[in-house]
Amino acid sequence: MPSPSSDQNSRPLKPIPGSYGLPFFGALKDRHDYFYYQGQDKFFLSRIKKYGSTVFRTNMPPGPFISSDPRVVAVLDGVSFSVLLDNSKVEKRNVLDGTFMPSTSFTGGHRVCAYLDPSEPKHAAIKSFILSVLASKHDTFIPLFRACLSELFTNIEDNIRDNKTANFNALSDDMSFNFVFRLFCDGKPTEHGLGPKANTDFDKWIFFQLHPLISLGLSKFLNVFEDMLLHMFPLPSFLVKSGYDKLYNAFYSSAGVILDEAEHRFKIKRDEACHNLVFVAGFNAYGGMKALFPGLIKWVASGGESLHRQLADEIRTVIKEEGGVTIAALNKMSLTKSVIYEALRIEPPVPFQYGKAKEDMVVNSHDVAFEIKKGEMIFGYQPFATKDPRIFTNPEEFVSDRFVGEEGEKLLQYVYWSNGRETQNPTVDDKQCPGKDLVVLLSRVLLVELFLRYDTFTIEASKLSLGTSVKFLSFTKATMTV
Question: Is the pTM of this model over 0.85?
Fold first, then answer.
């Protein structure tokens, strides 16, 4: 198994290559390269080739005028990237979205937990609250998600029957919002005054916060217009306030037990707790599912009937032996688990990580070391770190059984999708995703439900600015039922 060198002290110290260019104009050029002339991956690959290094200096979008300082030190291999997971070395204050932070007016005037550094007093209280909420819902996850998936697959079948194709993203988004709301609010959205398409309010709210990092993929003649609209100035929150207020009020009125707990046990003001809950539900959970589920389906589809047959055999055999879809059953599905980890490795739902150096430090790559000064922004592009050819064999290939067996499980320490190693669990003292285990669990349940119902399926996939678009074309119904 290829692996990075374990000797942390033998690497020669070299200056960090790269350039920020002229003030303003250098950042502007890099932004146009990133969005329009090269694209994301080529932007990084061209600089790796130019400098002969996976660690280099560059500017990251959005730059002028949204970001006051777009300069970063990029760490793009599996070894150097890990510095971003060390909270003793990097500060995570206001860096969720990189070199800029959306206005707190999007979250009721509060800096929610995702923007807090673990050193800030509120971080421990709010993250403890979030972890406590998830723990209290532990027995609800599987039955509720299975019920939501049943509706999803019925809708997909109806769409294929009527229209010959089914837009998975749209149907999955509806299902994900329904699940998240029911999980936290103990009722369907329509029962709490929200319309059947309330998730579009979340979509707009998320877009207005992340637009500086997005390209719409318009024709080249419209690039200048798009750049001025999306990347020059922040869009005002009042344009999405009414939709957000509807969601906030629905959570505030229906999640009373959760908010009582926040006030009395964790000493968090009720309105601040609710804004954090809405952020976790909308930005983290629903937003994460929007990116994760289409990507997972795309990669599983790429394995064809052979992989589908293997997954169906494993899932149905284990479910029959265990007598149902349980945590114990899911933990016995070694290939199913590996497929999830491989999808998270090859296409992590959150591709970027940032942190500001707390002190002068030396960061190791595979063969050399670099000195980063206190206060410098460090940037990691996760898909490169988790496709490091020095760690993973055939890193660009989707290898369904990559993480099966003892040697495969050793590689999980280099799967960083959750802002932490897959071998670690989130705590109040770190910035690892509090819903890390829930994400993996729901992904497994999605595949279990898929292959309990169908033997194989076909899709059509295309790339979006923030993920993958999937259309289901056909299903072959299961020939064996459990």
Answer: yes
